[in-house]
Amino acid sequence: MEYRYLGKTGLRVSELCLGTMTLGRETSEKDSFSILDRYVEEGGNFIDTADVYSRGGSEEIVGKWLKNQNRDDYVVATKVRFPMGEGPNDIGLSRKHIISGVKESLRRLGTDYIDLYQVHAWDPRTPLEETLSTLNDLVREGLVRYIGASNFKGWQLQKAIDLSKQKGWEQFVCLQPQYNLLCRATEYELIDVCENEGLGVIPWSPLRGGWLSGKFTRDMVKPPENSRISVAEEKGYSETWDKYNNNFTWNLLDTLYSVAEEAGKTPAQTAINWLLNSRGVTAPIIGARTMEQLEANLGSAGWSLTKDQLDRLNKASELFVSYPYDIDAINQRTKGRE
């Protein structure tokens, strides 16, 4: 596995990040340790979790695994924002909740520092100054090495960056957005902001909850039993059958399967490799409930799609764009006439 710098920092992370949302939820502690060990065998050093995953269960499993490792060999990332209790201050990005959250994450992870501490989403109720100054203090205290954001809109991310620059505070070094062949609206503003400001991009859901895994074909009338999509509506997941059962999805999957066959890879490996070749991307976050899924996802690195294959996937996944996001097309048509 190759290593890439995270944004404009000197921190090097493996090109595939291991997401641990399933640990403690769908994957036992024993199997979780095996998955972590196998990921490391392939050169992985970047592990992403969050306090809200299994209400701390994921962090605890990662922490138990870390006890038998050389801690400094790994870049451990976690997040804060969502409810961790029933109290009025057990949620959000207030100074109180962030400080409480980081202390609890450190305890569960069994470590004295977090490499990358990310705010899990925007908090409209807390002044941005309160959130960013608190994160700055955590870095100054040595509890956190770097800070990042997840699930921000373009203006929110730019506002946070500008405010940190103005105040001389630590700046976000990366963004963790949803980004995949079925979700390219991330390119409208977020990728541009990250490239312009030197932030790394670590996309979550590279397979869109399984839609890009190779399990779905246009002749289906319902999702496979026991798949994530089959329970998505019940669980409140966004990748529901009704949302994606349409011609756009099936046409994209036709192209994905054709390109995968040409490349001699699985559709899942092809979809993740597309991300590895996308501008601004540092490391897609791969998840795995089983060792088989991990092995399959690890096969997405170490090779590259051809330009023709990338172009076909880009065309098949291109979303309809209206004003003002079509302004680049307008500029291209008038180029050289001014």
Automatic annotation (TrEMBL):
<protein>
    <submittedName>
        <fullName>Aldo/keto reductase</fullName>
    </submittedName>
</protein>
<dbReference type="InterPro" id="IPR036812">
    <property type="entry name" value="NAD(P)_OxRdtase_dom_sf"/>
</dbReference>
<dbReference type="InterPro" id="IPR023210">
    <property type="entry name" value="NADP_OxRdtase_dom"/>
</dbReference>
<keyword id="KW-0560">Oxidoreductase</keyword>
<dbReference type="Pfam" id="PF00248">
    <property type="entry name" value="Aldo_ket_red"/>
</dbReference>
<feature type="domain" description="NADP-dependent oxidoreductase">
    <location>
        <begin position="15"/>
        <end position="317"/>
    </location>
</feature>
<dbReference type="InterPro" id="IPR020471">
    <property type="entry name" value="AKR"/>
</dbReference>
<dbReference type="InterPro" id="IPR050523">
    <property type="entry name" value="AKR_Detox_Biosynth"/>
</dbReference>
<dbReference type="GO" id="GO:0005829">
    <property type="term" value="C:cytosol"/>
</dbReference>
<dbReference type="GO" id="GO:0016491">
    <property type="term" value="F:oxidoreductase activity"/>
</dbReference>
